[in-house]
Structure prediction request, 1200 residues.
Amino acid sequence: MLQATHPFQLVAGLLVWAIWFVVLYAGLSVGCAVAPPAAEQGDLNWLNGGLGAISLATTLLLVLAAWRCWQAAAVPSVDRQGAFFARLGAAIHGVSALATAAIAIPVVAYPPCV
Amino acid sequence: MTDSQGHDGGAQHRRLDAVWANWPGWRTLAAVNHTSIGLRFMLTGVFFFLVGGVLAMLARTQLALPAQDILSADVYNQVFTMHGTVMMFLFAIPVLEGLALYMIPKMIGARDLVFPRISSLGYYCYLFGGLIILSSLFVGQAPDSGWFMYTPLSSAEHAPGMGSDFWLLGITFVEISAMAAGIELTVSILRSRAPGMTLRHMPIFCWYILAMALMIVFGFPPLILASVLLELERAAGMPFFEVAAGGDPILWQHLFWLFGHPEVYIIFLPAAAVVSTLIPVFAQRPIVGYRWLVLAIIVTGFISFGLWVHHMFTIGIPKLAQAFFSVASMLVAVPTAIQLFAWLATLWTGRVIRSLPMLWIFGFLVIFVCGGLTGVMLALVPFNWQVHDTHFVVAHLHYVVVGGMLFPLIAGFYYWLPHFSGRMSTPVLGALGFWLTFIGFNATFLLMHLTGLLGMPRRVYTYEAGLGWDWLNLLSSVGGFVMAAGIALVLLDIALHFRFGRPAGRNPWNADTLEWATNTPPAPYNFASLPALDTRHPLWRQPELLQSIPAGEHGLTDIRHGRRETYGTEAVSGRLREVIHLPGNSWLPLLGALMLAVVCVSLLVRIYPMALLGVVGAAVFLLRWGWENGAHPRAAPLTANEPDNPPLHSRTCDGPGLWGMWVTLMANGTLYLSLLFGWFYLWTAAPQWTTPETLSVDRVAMVAAGLVLTGAVVAYGRLVRALCKGRATFLAGGLLLVTTLGCLHLAVVLWALLGAGLTPTEHAHDAMLLVMFLYLLFHAGLATVLSLLQALRVRLGYVGVRLPYEPVVLRPLWLYTLAVYWLSVALFLFLPAAWGAGG
Amino acid sequence: MFAHRRLWSAVAWLTRPRVAVLAGLAHVCLLTGCAGEYSTLDPAGPSALAVSWLWWGMLLAFGLVWFAVIGLWLLAVRRDPGDVSDAQAQRLQNRWIIGGGLVLPGVSIAVLLAFGIPVGHGMLPLSADEDVLRIEVTGYQWYWQVEYPDAGVSLEDELHIPAGEPVHIHLRSNDVIRSFWVPRLAGKLDAIPGHENVLKLQADQAGVYRGLCAEFCGLLHADMGFTVEAHEREDFEQWLSDAARDD
Ligand code: HEM
Ligand SMILES: [Cu+2]
Ligand SMILES: [Cu+2]
Prediction:
């Protein structure tokens, strides 16, 4: 299932994205409920930092996965069906990485809990 | 409905027809065939569209001039709520489901959907549910809290009448049909494509419908849960949304929009499927960027679940969270833009044939792109704070819904008219209808953006003069009537074409997809023989299919056994695996739906004994339905000369039923996750939530019950594994053992529940626990009953070494039951204590 | 290459006159049609002003996109492509889809956020302005109860604020959800049972501004209007002490 030519690659990246998104939103909500950083700290506080770090790690993971799929599609021995999934999987991992990075940008712009 | 083309296989067609035809006369109500059900869905949908349209005209009449009192505030509130509800739940979704149910088997080269009786059940749930909701207008008690039914406005205190109950119960009833369609379409697309049709060779239409179906599977459960919870609050006083008792009205908004936003894409995807199907045909070249489209479809399917909070930007959640959802909302513009430019590139590189369907597609483009752009604007939080809940949003939503759904739908209707009727429509009347609709629509809604910017809120029954809104509203009302005239012309055109349209002949648009290889109108079995395919454009690459299919030159032509059959193939590769035998006409779906209607109505009027009778009745019919499967004499009894290459699916350990079970459990799991979300949400966010100091549920008993359940599931798993290896020595006894363990488990859980002394009407905490308990009891109970029936079927010879299928299908249910049991025990009973029972 | 040039000239042809029309429309609107007691396009406070500029900017930019897409479509439908080889189609596809499907929305979103995030930030009631006037507004079916806790003043459907400085409106609801909105001053914010939300409101000049309820709240939702009267600072102090005495 984790092979780069497996059809699971069509949803793997977005599944990672979805889990990250839940962690992001839930983390923010729970963080603000448990130990809200003061608004004066702006965006420099443990919560934004943590969310940002998770997002960065997720983005990197997705980029890596995209690259792996892209490589697999270029292997000459792979059949057309497998190449189709790998190529598409690469694009979807890439889009997921972009979505992760883009959605996380406000972490550097806003204080978390107001 | 029979073949009119007069091919030489006339006798063969008659034999197929005898097996596949609906019963004549009124007994056609027992039909399960996807062509009939699809058409019924679409016709009923059009009926509800007209109802919704009349309501819209009433609203527009009231708003035409300031300070009018044609409708009272009370009536206006019912009118706009019903308009929105009818349009979204009873028109948009069902009509598109109908189109998908009608088209999918024909496009993938199958004879029917894999669960025909479920199609029929879905249709009747839709019909009865729709009629129940509609009847509220006639008893003057229509829902009046808006189509998203925000609590506390819709709660027992502020909406004491039956209106909210009509909505909650009726919509949940209708939802059954959506879930049915979602599950059935998913499995049919994955498991019954023509041999050789790999995923990569599917017509793009099928990718869209697959995504839509899966989105239904994951998108509807939150709404179903929310409706159940709100109805429990209204009818039984369980305070999920009541602040004072530890609930929170915001929970409703989360659950509703968790469904509500994906729903927009559930509507848009099939419409985009129509666009993506028509454009290549009228450009007479393959779609440009097939892979890009698949990418866009998948990305849309996921991202659209991460946007729901953009409907809640004004409720005061942290700005940072709003920003996440804001960016995510803007990002869905990306897959939409990809599709748009793929369509443009296709037109650019093709020689485009002008036609009525293309005219509607052009209308789609103009309107939908505008709606998409205002959507991106609305995703910008500060702008949203200004225009949210104004007529700007009303304009936006109609640009999206009418542009993104109604126009492509009508394009599709015109395109497939020859398929439905065998005739072409007339160009003149159709064009006139288009232009009136198009102009009327824009007259109604374009300047309505300005009305909103000038500050007119939505959902007001009247407004004072002199605020700059007067002429805009008058224009909108006039436009609305022009549009209504346009729609009337379209309907007239379609009605007349049945009489005056010229005969279409075969494949009149020179299309590439397989649905045009059926007769027009199609025979109930679609194809006299089932071809193998390895191209996305069968009718362009192999035009001879138009002759060879009806001539019976391909597979699965033997009909002497009298069974309805189609091919079952592997999900990814499309390799032939089995012959799926399908049920024929049956009254059970209708009877089951009738019983559910009884339940729905009795809950509505609060006659609970009758509701209980209805539940029992429905259970009887549904279990009987399950009984007539496999080797039952009414299905596919064992015979001496069984086909074995490929075998019948009920003789194997994998088949559409197993897939259907898994997909159902995915939906069910989403329901459970929604419940978990509610639990954690209330725990962390409800202003007055309290966790009791000491939990009254006996946790030792619960763990013991869990161990018993684990034993049952392990035993069941062993039985199934042995069965698939060809050993069935201890099968009936084993199943009885599992049943016994199941009963024991149920007894202990029930005992723990009764001993806990919960006060579900006073605390949201206890109410949540009670729902969790009922959920667990229902699942363990269901699995136990079904296992008992399996034991019986072993005795009767319907299940055994040669017939291992049914126990295999049942196994995921046991696994699921076990998983949710332990999860619930951990997260509802142990976690709060471990956390320190905080407040 | 040639196709490219033709394409762009077509786009330019389609958009040029329309831009003028659009600008003209905006002008006319600004002079006449945009005025209105509830008009967000006739802003009288910093929040509403910033948002109105967002609107005009987006209207212009997205208007262009809209006309460009429709223009392309019309052109695509009309033109005769000649023979397009598969390789050509492939190249065109990638160029269009990457350009129109990824770059165009990507750039639009980036620009939008670059403008939108600071505007949104400016509208927040940050606690740094701790010494601002606090007004408590509670929704009832169907009126707004207005309290000045420090002065002990209580009113119905009527607010008084000092002009030229922000005030914080603390929003609550007694029964159902509703939304507090003064379109010419600032965005709306919901009043929700069990929750308290804080809205920053500022009127630049003295005057009377009208507000309404934006979230549907039942039978008389349409009649939940109120007024916000902004006074010069001294007049406001005067009003407040008068009102406190009358109470
Ligand atoms: C025939 C053209 C139509 C007209 C003239 C029309 C008119 C209206 C009006 C006047 C409202 C009430 C606005 C308000 O007071 O907030 C409304 C709301 C709505 N319309 Fe339509 N409509 C039309 C078609 C449609 C279609 C085709 C759909 C969906 C498929 C649709 C979905 C909705 C929804 C969801 C609402 C919101 C209802 C609510 O606020 O609870 N409409 N429409
Ligand atoms: Cu949405
Ligand atoms: Cu209101």
Summary: The two ends of chain A are 42 Å apart (CA to CA). The mean pLDDT of chain A is 90.
